[in-house]
Structures are given as C-alpha cells and as structure tokens.
Task: structure prediction
Amino acid sequence: MLFASNNLNKVLEVENILNRKILSLKDLDFKINVLETGKTFNENAIIKAKEIYELTKIPTIAEDSGLEIPILNGFPGVKTNRFLGSNKTDSDRNQKILEMMQDKNDRTCYFTSCFAYYDGKNLETFTSSLKGTIAYEEHINMGFGFDSIFLYNNEYLSDMSISNKNKISPRTTSLKKLQDFLQKNIDLID
Result:
C-alpha cells in the first residue's frame, strides 16, 4: 500500500500509528504535488488517492487535514497548509492565525483528518476531528503544522509526546477506521 504524501512528518506519523512501514512517494522517487481543488478534506483526499493510484497502480491511501476555526467561518480549512502561499513556514501561518484571532473570545477550533483509500475499484473515506482551542501565543517544541497553537485540554499539541498525541489525534482515529476496513477486506492489503 502506498501513502500519497511528500510530507515526511506525516509519513512517519502514519507509520507510527499503523505500526508498519508504509511505501511513500519518496520511496518511489515521485516528485508530484497533486492539485487539491476540492472544497472539503474528503474531496481532496479522494483526488490525491485516485491520481496517485492512476500513476502507480498501487493501492493508495491519501490524507487531507487541517485546522478549522468556527469564529473565522471555518478558516483556514482545506487551505491550512497554503493560505499564505507555498513558500511560507508553519510558524508564518501560525502567526497569521494568531493575529486573526487576536480580538476573538471564542477560540474553539477543530483539527480534522480525512483519509481516502483507492485501489482502482474500491473507494472508501475515513474522517475524524479533534476539538480544541487556539492558544494566545505560539509554543514551538515538537510536532509540526499548527501543533504549536492548538490546545487540547489546555496542553499544546507540540508539548505532547508522540504516543500521547497519537492517542487523541484524529489522524489516528481515521487510520484506525481505515485499518478496520482493510482487516475486514484482507484481500485488499498489499
């Protein structure tokens, strides 16, 4: 099975959650960035899974995930990683979000993860969300993305150990749903 991602942090996180080595785009020496033109995480995950499968003919999983802030009408949503452009860092994006949230009392946010599985015939999606709050300042420690501004039970995701973060991560929940699907359909695995 192939994970359609160029993000090494995501690949390592998925391998850690599934407790198995996953073939990645880097392993195949693919330098492709699929255009994420969907309006939802679900649509983007499906677009990526189908496009990579068509190129490789290897059963493929793909993920789209991001931060949704209700007070900002769901922003940044599907544009979490690119709302400032492709040459910006996680910290640049986080600082912009903190600036936009400066005068907001309701700091509720959601980390949503959607995985799609496609093998040329079967298409399945698995989605989960984690509710938290946007911090008042960035706290860079471990993690990536918006971990340094996302608080869960008043703890930064960036301060959590990998094992503790994986216990609550919607990426974990979505992957466990995927894993259950694959185990029930054992003939689809590799």
User: Anything to note?
Assistant: Residues 41-56 form the longest helix (16 residues). The CA atoms of residues 30 and 55 lie 10 Å apart. The helical segments are 8-18, 41-56, 90-100, 162-168, 170-184. Strands lie at 2-3, 23-24, 60-69, 75-76, 108-118, 123-134, 150-152, 155-156.
